[in-house]
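User: Can you write out an input/output pair for a complex, sequences first and structure second?

Assistant: Here is one pair. Inputs:
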Amino acid sequence: MTTDTAVGRFGRYGGRYVPETLVPALLELEEAYAKAQADASFNEEVTRVLREFVGRPTTLTPAHRLTESWGGANVWLKREDLAHTGAHKINNTVGQVLLARRMGKKRIIAETGAGQHGVATATACALFGLPCEVFMGALDVERQALNVFRMRALGAVVRPVESGSRTLKDAMNEAMRVWVSQVQDTYYVIGSAAGPHPYPTIVRDFQSVIGREIRTQTQAAIGRLPDAIIACVGGGSNAIGALHPFIGDTSVRLVGVEAAGHGLDSGQHGASLTLGTEGVLHGSRSLVLQDEHGQIQEAHSISAGLDYPGVGPELAHLAKTGRMEVRTATDDEALAAFYEVARTEGILPALETSHAFAAARALARDLGKGKQLVINCSGRGDKDVATISARGVPPATGVKS
Amino acid sequence: MSAELGKAFAKAKARGEGALVAYAMAGDPDLPRSVDVFAAMVEGGADVLEIGVAFSDPIADGPVIQAASERALKAGATLRRVLDEVVPEVRRRCPETPLVIMTYVNVVMAMGEERYAKLARERGIAGTILPDLPPEESAGIRAAFDKEGVDLVPLCAPTTPPARAEAIARDARGFVYCVSVAGVTGMRAELPPDLSQRLDLVKRAASVPVVAGFGISNAETARPLVAHADGVVVGSALVKAAHSDGPAAAKQLCADIKRGLKR
């Protein structure tokens, strides 16, 4: 089964809503990607770099103590936090930077929210020797100091974006403006499964390595496919990567978790699948947070990676057709889940991932004992320690003070 | 199709001039005062008015128009209010000048493309420019606009290959907007040397007037283009002038540019 309904379309969603200046570049990219896909040596190179450099396959860890504590399904963690640079983002940047090199592009630009995609792009550029500029909302530059340092250490230039909400949406606007100006020799590495066609397809394909590995690993571990897979959704690249290979397996429940921020009623959240309406943002038609006049609203999440008012078009299609269930978790629920996972499993999950954990408890109980639940552990929480520790750390567990 | 645009270009041509399509942002600094800017530009010689409707995420625009969008949104400019409060007033004060709306596709989609086309016609809008709507995505919107006689003006870019540019020109409504530089809106010291050839190519294929826009800010940058285009679009320079020195400055700049457009 495929969700593609026409070239670049996922049901009503997708498309290529960009200035005419960019259309030829997107057509060129579409053609170059099709050729690369058909070329066994390209796929071999991507696979080799993922194995030798990124550390794939990432493990599938049984979460015994969470399973016991939640009292429902057996919980498994797909450990994208163990991929090099600490998140799933590197799967896509390695693929796209190799594609850019194949296309003869001289320079790479990217946008980043939490900084993970920026770090992953800077890393791939360092590995393959291409200059790299990363656009990042000025607010995110403040929130994600560690990742800003990492990008600079890797030789990338970080350009803070002061317009609008000073977050990911504005960084993406700025990257598109710069791309329009330098489209001849510049490759724009988009990090979410969003943006104009063919990006949602390219990003999904490179991230689908996550779901393919889940498939193989659950077969080996339990002799069958899991009963459910859950992943957090901002733009949605880790979610579509984990879920896409299972779209045709109707026995597998696919669950996406959005940021409810201060609460769905507060107007301050990032829940575009739950509360968004159809619109065009950053080159594709999808579900977006907007007012009745079509002005894009600012999203909010404690997690910079989920602080985005849009979502990838394929996820919008999966949500609208009911193939993917959509749940939400607030900032506070994500924080509570962060400590629960840290203290139950010895893993500091990223704040993005913590949203998936926050919603996974109820899902595990819904599924019940004997069922198998995979949580996509999209990234590690090191980048978030400043944000989290600023709110105070709960006292140690099981130790007399 | 709207005959009004064609007439305005023909009148300028009969006077031996290229046409000036003058852009300003509706609602900058507020709705009533932006009407004064539009009226002043017509007094300065503008042949067509391009009325910008702000969008929160204007990816085709440079810093000047981006900042104007933010001001207009703060002042409460919405597509509905621009059509209800700005357009009728501009129409009243400049009855001879065709009006074109420039905004982004999401703003029109939020209103509903058919509803927009109907309202636009009722208010006297001749055409609409949506810079993030390439031909591949435009069939539905164009059909809705055609039904009401509102021209969906297409854009052509420096990166557009010749065959594609010819197809865009052949199929155009209103006029063809040739983007002079690969980039966003904004003033530039120089325009690319191959612009005149690109304009000639588009002009040969087009059955409607052809204008050059992006980067044109004064008589000097406009002058060499009149041999190859039917007119020019000036945006950022006028927005900047109106923002810093008011409607009279925009009028003055229009008059200067018109002098550069004499053949």
